[in-house]
Design a protein that fits this description.
heterodimer, A: about 425 residues, mainly beta, Rossmann fold, Neuraminidase, 2 domains, five-stranded mixed β-sheet, 4 helices, about 40% strand, disordered N terminus, B: about 180 residues, alpha+beta, 60s Ribosomal Protein L30, Chain: A, four-stranded mixed β-sheet
């Protein structure tokens, strides 16, 4: 009888301090985590269904989020636990299922029509609570509360911030290659709550989220005048960004949301400009006859990485945010395009063109440490999750098929397809929602 | 002088008034009385309608005339290039000759790229190709103000397929009479 207890103590003492997933290397052994159905103190009807049923659904969303990261493996029963066990877990049950951590909680209906999700994270071997928080939402937003709980668990167990309560905007594609119908679309990062934002009448491309704002910018061929447009998610309104001389494309917001970078093409010459959105003032950042496009700000807003063929072929360059000091970043084999600076600042993702393929990769901001993450006919336009850990991009098969969205983590592991109603391209991962 | 004018005017008015009055002799004759009680003959069928089909025909200065009179609407480019080679310039010379006859025509040059590049760069590459054609035609005397350009990048390939034959056909700039085709 003593031996099992000693064993438990030996396991418990280090686990309490070190229950953490190492996210720096590729994780081949995901941490087993139990996510049983959430309880309810009193079953009650809500606008999103009974709280007991919601408890089951919440757990399913959290388990799917954690599993999708490639760092966690849900184990143990999915049946809901009794309400009392949400604050006093039956640790034996979970240790027997080999779970190292337990995510549990409850859904409660409030008198004002909202619901509260109580979220708890436990270390099953140390038998201690690691985190807890309550999230109050309207019933229609129950998935956001579940994602917030998953983010809470993820952050505590990995030491980095989460990314599950976020959205992806992209371009939905259907029809023959010679006459594709493209529509602006938005969804939760797990594919739920999908909505089309345009009706397919006009060719639309390359949307981008504004940080900290429920606004998008995208390119549209409406009126046969290729231009940039805003979409306001709170009002549902589309509005042209401005009437600039020349074709405008390649919209990118600054981290503080104050500026919109774009390429303007005048007399066949594409340069990068910066628009002060509120002041409606346009500054030119690059000059010369080369194609300069696809810029991306560093997370502190001080630098911009972009692509230019001023050296003869498409390569990556970095300049200061005011356009000064441009210097070349890439000297490897092939051409480099669509740079995306990680929100963590430590990496720049890109599309590399060469050997008959388009492939997604990352490198350090000094140009070293190039790593290719994918290998297919055409993978392009990587976009970072809010925590700088995962990249979403799109893959086009050779031939006539429509492209689709995929994701990979920065180690190149955990390659997944992101399901969408139709074909999909040009994804942009939005910020963590407040 | 005044009296003469008055008589003249009065005379005209009188003549006009007389012309309006119908005379009894102008009235149509009364219809003939039927003389036999035989069944009426069936009406002869009406003659077939005259041929009212409409045939499109080429008229000077039209888009059809442009297509038929030139070596082509379309020029092609090498990979990642916007240079006009010999055959391209020959085609554009024939376009310029036609445009010289119709100097007020408004045209749009549409630039395209093949799929083997990233989306935004290809929009810019298509724009370079359209602008190269515009510059060439303007250099041959056609008013630059009558030449609009638009790039579709890799969005509107002419042919499907992921092989060099398809890609070569898709790397193009087309000259359209009027506005962009969308």
């Amino acid at each position: 009888m003593i031996r099992p207890l000693l064993l438990a103590l030996l396991l418990a003492a280090p686990a309490a301090a070190q229950l953490r997933v190492d996210v720096t290397q590729g994780v081949s052994q995901p941490m087993p985590v139990a996510v049983p159905g959430f309880a309810t103190p009193a079953p009650a009807a809500t606008a999103a269904g009974n709280t007991a049923a919601l408890g089951q659904q919440v757990a399913a969303v959290i388990a799917a989020d954690l599993k999708s990261s490639g760092l966690f493996r849900p184990v143990g029963q999915a049946d809901p636990v009794p309400f009392a066990q949400t604050t006093a877990p039956a640790y034996d049950t979970w240790r027997q299922a080999a779970a190292q951590a337990l995510v549990t909680g409850a859904v409660e209906a409030n008198p004002d029509g909202t619901i509260t999700l109580a979220c708890y994270l436990y270390d099953t071997f140390a038998q201690s609570q690691l985190a807890s928080e309550g999230f109050r939402v309207t019933p229609a937003a129950w998935r956001r509360a579940a994602h917030k709980c998953a983010d809470k668990a993820y952050a505590r167990l990995t030491g980095e911030s989460g990314y599950f309560d976020s959205q992806i905007v992209y371009i939905s594609e259907t029809g023959p290659k010679t006459r594709r119908i493209k529509r602006l679309a938005i969804m939760d990062q797990d594919g739920a709550n999908h909505r089309f934002l345009t009706n397919g009448q006009n060719l639309v491309l390359t949307p981008r989220f504004a940080p900290n704002q429920s606004r998008l910018a995208y390119m549209s061929f409406a009126g046969n005048r290729p231009s940039l447009w805003f979409y306001d998610a709170t009002t549902g309104r589309h509005q042209i960004v401005g009437t600039f001389q020349g074709t405008s494309l390649s919209p990118r917001f600054s981290p503080d949301g104050r500026y919109l970078l774009m390429s303007l093409i005048r007399a066949g010459n594409a340069n990068i400009y910066r628009l002060d959105i509120a002041a409606k003032a346009l500054d030119r950042l690059t000059d010369g006859p080369s194609i300069d496009t696809s810029p991306s700000y560093s997370p502190d807003g001080s630098k911009i990485v972009f692509e230019s063929d001023r050296g003869g072929t498409q390569q990556l360059y970095i300049m200061n945010a005011d356009g000064s000091g441009a210097h070349r970043l890439t000297f490897g084999q092939g051409r480099y395009a669509t740079p995306a600076w990680s929100p963590r600042g430590d990496l720049i993702a890109f599309t590399r063109i060469g050997g008959g393929k388009l492939r997604v990769g990352t490198m350090r901001p000094d140009g070293g440490g190039e790593k290719l993450l994918t290998d297919s006919f055409a993978d392009e336009q990587p976009s970072w999750s809010p925590n700088g850990r995962v990249l979403v991009f799109f893959r086009t098969p050779s031939g006539s098929a429509t492209p689709h969205l995929m994701s990979a983590d920065l180690t190149g592991l955990n390659l997944r397809t992101i399901p969408t109603p139709l074909g999909a391209s040009d994804p942009s991962w939005g910020p963590l929602r407040p | 002088m005044r009296a003469t004018k008055f008589v003249l005017i009065a005379g005209v008015a009188l003549a006009a008034a007389c012309a309006k009055k119908p005379k009894p002799a102008d009235l149509p004759p009364p219809p003939p009385q039927p003389t036999q009680s035989v069944p009426a003959q069936p009406d002869t069928p009406p003659p077939p309608p005259a041929n009212d089909a409409v045939t499109s025909t080429r008229v000077p200065g039209s888009a059809g005339d442009f297509r038929a009179s030139t070596q082509g609407q379309m020029v092609h480019f090498a990979y990642d290039s916007y240079e006009l080679d010999g055959p391209a310039r020959a085609i554009l010379d024939s376009q310029a000759a036609w445009l010289a006859k119709y100097p007020n025509t408004r045209i749009t040059v549409e630039g395209h790229a093949d799929e083997r590049g990233t989306r935004e760069y290809n929009i810019a590459l298509g724009a370079r190709r359209a602008d190269a054609v515009k510059t060439y035609l303007a250099g041959k005397g056609f008013a630059a103000g009558n030449i609009a350009t638009i790039s579709y990048g890799k969005e509107r390939p002419l042919v499907e397929g992921s092989d060099e034959t398809a890609w070569a056909q898709n790397r193009r700039a087309t000259t359209e009479i009027g506005g962009p085709t969308g």
